Structures are given as structure tokens and as C-alpha cells.
């Protein structure tokens, strides 16, 4: 029986983000409050009788096997496992998933019985947790490709809270202790002698699960990539990434009812001179140990880029969080008008 404080906290966290649509079955879960929510967990989700529900979070998730399908999930952390209660539409979103998801319950489709899939990742199978840049997302890695999930929280507070709760729960696991580490100096601890490249910052938990955080070089690599996309128009040393945020680009759907739109996940990067939208691979990098070949696409693919000096105005939507921002740019086809005028006037 969880404490009143924990029940109240889980009830408060049980809210679907307003901009995301979910199936009827998940709406039912989001409507549960207090002890009803705890009873639902023990009656329908928990695999062991004595496990405790410790944390609840709503988040978009990506699976390693289906990197292009982002699906809404209710993430439940217990003292035994992490449960991802998934939107039932996910199973039918991709024909190639038949080996990934069992379709035993397909006869329920036409009845009034609403089905949700539950993906379970046992804490004993957990190997590492990779935290994304600026805590916008995190990736949980188990022992195979089926056990890699990225939670796109798009919120540093939610990421931080989940990681803290996960560390607390992992501390309860009884695992055989690691052998005593040999004292190492700073360079052998953090650097690879072969490449001379600094590794990402790793924290090895007492349960032997690695928590891996990005280091400063990752921002440097991203700045270099952004500068490359700008066709050398800018001076790299002066290029600073001011903002990195996971957002959605709103695409209005033609031929549908007004006010309906599709949300395309994008990574927004703001520098001192430009605004960029990237398609980012949140699930394949860094490469898992069992990966035989690199991913089919780069980590960052440029979707759109505009100069700040061409920005005409910014429209703010005052609806509930998250806010919509509309950037209106001057419709100038050429990158730099004055530069080309002088070339034409003075010859070559």
C-alpha cells in the first residue's frame, strides 16, 4: 500500500499532454485517480504480486526496431520493471512489426473492448541509460534490439524526475557486487588511448547500470555540423548554439476539418545568426554494442534553415502549454542580395 503522498503524486502526474491525441483505452487510464490507479496497476499490469508502483509519466516513445513510429505511452516504473502502456494504434501502424508484437488479441478489434499493448522492460535486464542533450530525452537499453526504448519527454524536469526515481528503484535490486575498481588516473579513466577522443561522461550505478551523459564535445560536433549546413557563410569560432529543443512542426492537413493539423517531431536549434529545424535520430545513437553496422541515416538531417535577419515577426499562441510559435520570414529567395548586386556591377 503506497503512502498518501505517493498516491497523490502519481495522480497529479497522470495527465496526457494537451497537444497529443491518444486512444480510448489510454484515455481511460488517464481518467483514473488515487487508489483506483494503484488498483488498476496491480490488477492489469503488474507481473509480480509484491511489486510497488513508484512513478508514472506520460511520454512519446520510440522503439529501436521501429525508429520512424513515435507513439504516446503511459510509462509506469515499479520496483521490478518499467512498463510502457502503448496506444493500440501502434500495433497496426507498421506491417513489419508482426514479429515484434504478438497479435493474439486481434479478434477483439471490432468489439467494445479497448485493447492496449504493454511493453515490459525488467530492471534486471537494464544495461544503460543514455541522457540526451539538455535532458530533452533519454534512451533505455536492455540486452537486445527489442529492449531499446527512447522516451521523448521534451522536458528536462520530467527527464530528471524519472532518472532520479529509476536510480532509487535500482538501488533496491540485489545484484552481485562488481569487482573492486583499480585506481586510474584522469586520462585513462575518461580518454581512449587509441583515438585520443574524450568519452561521454559515465556514471556507473551500484546496480551496475550505466548512466551516460553527453559531454561538451557533443555540442562542439553539433555546432560544426550546423556550420557545415550554412555553406561556410559564418565563422565557426563565433558560432554559438543558444538553444536546443525538441519540438513539433505544425503541418495543416489539407482537405480536412479546420483546426486539425499533424505534428511532425523536429529538433529546433537556434544560433546567433540562424534558426534550424533538423530531423534527428533519437534512438540509434550512440550505437548499441550489438549493432553490426551503422544506422541507415545520419543523426541530424537538415529539414529547414532560415537567417534571423530575415525574420519578420513572431506570432505567439496564448493557448495552454505548450505554446505555439509562428515564425514569419521575409520571402527573399536569394541568401545575400547586396553581395550579388556588387558582383554584377563591378564584373568578376
Automatic annotation (TrEMBL):
<dbReference type="GO" id="GO:0010008">
    <property type="term" value="C:endosome membrane"/>
</dbReference>
<feature type="domain" description="PLEKHM2 PH">
    <location>
        <begin position="114"/>
        <end position="178"/>
    </location>
</feature>
<dbReference type="GO" id="GO:0007030">
    <property type="term" value="P:Golgi organization"/>
</dbReference>
<keyword id="KW-0963">Cytoplasm</keyword>
<dbReference type="GO" id="GO:0032418">
    <property type="term" value="P:lysosome localization"/>
</dbReference>
<dbReference type="InterPro" id="IPR057288">
    <property type="entry name" value="PH_PLEKHM2"/>
</dbReference>
<dbReference type="GO" id="GO:0019894">
    <property type="term" value="F:kinesin binding"/>
</dbReference>
<feature type="domain" description="Nischarin C-terminal PH">
    <location>
        <begin position="241"/>
        <end position="347"/>
    </location>
</feature>
<dbReference type="Pfam" id="PF25625">
    <property type="entry name" value="PH_NISCH_C"/>
</dbReference>
<dbReference type="GO" id="GO:0032880">
    <property type="term" value="P:regulation of protein localization"/>
</dbReference>
<protein>
    <submittedName>
        <fullName>NISCH protein</fullName>
    </submittedName>
</protein>
<dbReference type="InterPro" id="IPR053015">
    <property type="entry name" value="PH_domain-containing_M2"/>
</dbReference>
<dbReference type="InterPro" id="IPR057714">
    <property type="entry name" value="PH_NISCH_C"/>
</dbReference>
<dbReference type="Pfam" id="PF23142">
    <property type="entry name" value="PH_PLEKHM2"/>
</dbReference>
